[in-house]
Queue: 2 jobs
Job 1
Amino acid sequence: MDFKADAQRMEKIVSLCKRRGFIFQSSEIYGGLSGCWDYGPLGVELKRNLKNYWWHVIVHERDDVVGMDGSILMNRAVWKASGHEDTFTDPMVDCRSCKARLRTDQVIEKKGGRQCPNCGGRDLTEPRPFNLMFKTYVGATEDESSLTYLRPETAQAIFVQFKNILEVSRKKLPFGIAQIGKAFRNEINPRNFTFRSREFEQMELEYFCRAGEGMRLLDYWLWERLKFYENIGISREKLHARKVPDEERAFYSKGTYDIEYDFPFGRQELEGVAYRTDYDLSQHQNASGKSLEYFDEETKQRFVPHVVEPSAGVDRTVLALICEAYSEDEAPDEKGKMEMRIVLRFHPRIAPIKCAVFPLLKNKEPLVTKAKEIVALLRPHMYVFYDETGAIGRRYRRQDEIGTPFGVTVDFETLGEKDAALRDTVTLRERDSMKQERVLVKDLPGILVSRIS
Ligand code: GAP
């Protein structure tokens, strides 16, 4: 591993994200807010495409999964029963010299004792638990009775709505409930750009099953999820399924995998796939006094279902997509001289803009009119972008840099001025190979739709 090259690569990615409007620091004009990020015009498209594809694959393409959208604020009793109020903590250490607040695993262990990674100081407090949930108050009074938390995961809303959803959807085991939404954790040290944030989004599926099916479904969902990442353009070589060892696993889990990705800053978790047994539903059943049992019509038995949970981070996946897509190669400039090209090689399925349309010259009215007609033709099918400013090579380069997979150029052939046989044809350029083909305007929607889906 070349640490210097990887650090430089990450710097370039962060700078591109800002320069082209993928990701900005939250509240930037006030100096930012640590661990919080805003997605700009391109970032929001990328994020939306990812979430829509996840929803499509997990909910719409299956008979055995339904969706829900729970509230961020929930009764505090939920967090007591789930165990978050007592145990959702990171051990934390303070450095008395530089006042840095550190996660215990960041402290440098040396022969002479523990050392602060910030200032090298050795005057450190003993580790103590720090709860990662953000507190808030519901209503006008600010006391214990109105205290609750911003949810640190979306999963609990699924567990507490299990019975309602079972009744309305009339699903039989095994079946799942899916949700995408915001989660909040007061991380001690947010870092690596958006990787560890304080506000982020999760895509979670709780797949309920019988006790005997848990281990098989754990493996099933691991492979489904690996396939998903490959289908959005993440290379299999950079994905790793790590079996979480017994001593690291939550006590109630019978098996957990971390799906990890080789980021430029190291191999890190993208998603957890965990067999959580009947722990969650049992906890809520016991605490609420309401039955969360399933009645099996065939065996006439009642029992609390078990659950397998694939839980993915939207922001981490977006970051992995950008890291995976970033590349530098060479392309000819206007005079045919080779120059460096930055290109985001997004899979067309998740690219923010699918196709850019260019009139060859902006001061030739028939070219502009035709290009705008093509934009109108494509718009019902995909997100398109019209650009008439600058030399055509520059315009291609601008789109390469944001990962637009296709470019359509309207030229004099399109108008039939040089050869009547070429009337109503355009050049279609592919981003990665830079190859151009001549296609009929009327065929464009069909060709592009088949290549982006
Ligand atoms: N319901 C289970 C659960 O929340 P988790 O491993 O704590 O499990 C699941 O979180 C996923 O959420 C992680 O794999 C990661 O992708 C994402 N995630 C967790 N904490 C995050 C953070 N501080 N910033 C960004 N993403 C985070």
Job 2
Amino acid sequence: MAEIRLENVTKRYIEEKRPHYAVREISLSVEQGEFIFLIGSSGAGKSTLLKLIGGEMAPDQGVVYLNGSNVARLIGPWRARVARTFGVVSQQCLLVRKRTIGDNLLLAAGAAGLRRKGRQAMKKALGIVGLPNVEGCYPAELSIGECRRVELARALLSSPPVLLLDELTANLDDDSIWDLMHLLNELNNMGTTIIMATHASQYVNIMRRRVLTLVDGRLAGDVKHGKYGDIV
Ligand code: ADP
């Protein structure tokens, strides 16, 4: 279970010695089991917000709470527990091209501390994403859609309660996007929280889940059964 709460969270980058605000004064709560689309134009702050939620970066102001604990203050085993809470798929493909899919996932499983259970976790995750037979393939032998599924499998290795997905559907054809959305829906029905940055407006509009809209780093909309572009 993971309850996430952001209180007045701000993140700025320094560009040419000047602060540039990527995320500004965002407050929100996410309950276990929610399905959230994070939308906004390029540069609106979606990736930064996902990294703040996942504890990959700390806010300059404000606090990110996970189950009531200030994530920035957690150390040692508590910090490791934060990492296990989130399955992350980032915008860039992180599969090592010279390794098979099996090796890629076993490496990730080892890094996640799954050592002896790594192979079992790999098979289970590949089964969940519908690719049980790609273990011996190299990334270049798979379609873009299949690679994105493998990345989703890697994020699922530790059975995390929360998935943070950054543009998982970018550059995919309609059939692949629909298949992925269907899969995410199933994972969500089994209780996994999904927080997904996407530009796939027609799917956002069909699925009518919670929609968070960022404009220039600020939360411009938070709508329960929202559509793309809803600002409330
Ligand atoms: P989005 O995911 O919505 O495209 P980002 O979170 O990637 O937005 O970026 C928000 C803003 O922060 C953009 O203006 C971007 O240029 C800036 N930014 C993001 N990462 C960095 C960085 N590492 N250094 C400097 N500026 C950054």
